[in-house]
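Below is how a single chain appears once it has passed through the pipeline. First comes the sequence as given, then the structure the pipeline wrote out for it. We keep one example in the README because the format questions we get most often are answered faster by looking than by reading.
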Amino acid sequence: MNEVLMREIARIAEVAGYLWAKGWAERNGGNISVNVTALMSEEEKKRPAIAPAVSLPEAMTALAGHIFYVTGTGKRMRYVAQAPFANGSLIRIADDGLSYEIIAEEAIAPTSELPSHLLMHNYLRAKGRDNKVVLHTHPTDLIGMTHCKPLIQSEVITRLLWSMIPECRIIVPKGIGIVPYEIPGTVELAHATIKQLEKHDVVFWEKHGILAVGEDIIECFDAIDTLGKSAQIYFSARMAGYEPEGMTDEQLDGLVPAFGLDKIE
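Resulting structure:
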């Protein structure tokens, strides 16, 4: 593996360690997929498969020939951080987009949510969005908020979390999408998430977890981490016995020209 690719794998391992340290990755909770095609030489892209091809539920035509690092099924983030290739895999999508094959040195089966990840990658690439990363994790405070029915509306939870700290409005400028509860790992969950990705880069899965997409894995982590800080501020105020005032609409709107943000009506 070339040095550029290995640096990216090291960054993935770094984030996996953060997820575990934050308490967001209990047992084998969460998963990561990163499109590493552009980091590989033409020779590396042609590495032979080490296991039979695996069919995909739908044709991923926008991903034909693309290569991904994907965390492994049943693997712990704490171990991904220590040994990413023993707890994750490199996979190559077939030219017809209907299957994938493992081209790593070890035959580590990808996360069970791989079809969901690939459907999202396929959608984003087909739309011309250069989002190489899909990161899913289980932040305690944010999941807690999705158990409160009045909060799980996109406009409501976005406004609440934005208002806790200015950086949240800046770092998560597109707000938050909401997907009502679906069984984890299903195509239905993937399609519901894709609908939210039309407008958002971060999506909350009710009573399950959070998903972020982006060009850089550190930036995806930072978006979720910032939302988590806002949730902590909110809960800290509530536990102290008062409803946090939050930033006013005028204060939030003031960030738009100051940081070149798009105003969401």
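The mean pLDDT is 96.

See the next section for the split statistics.
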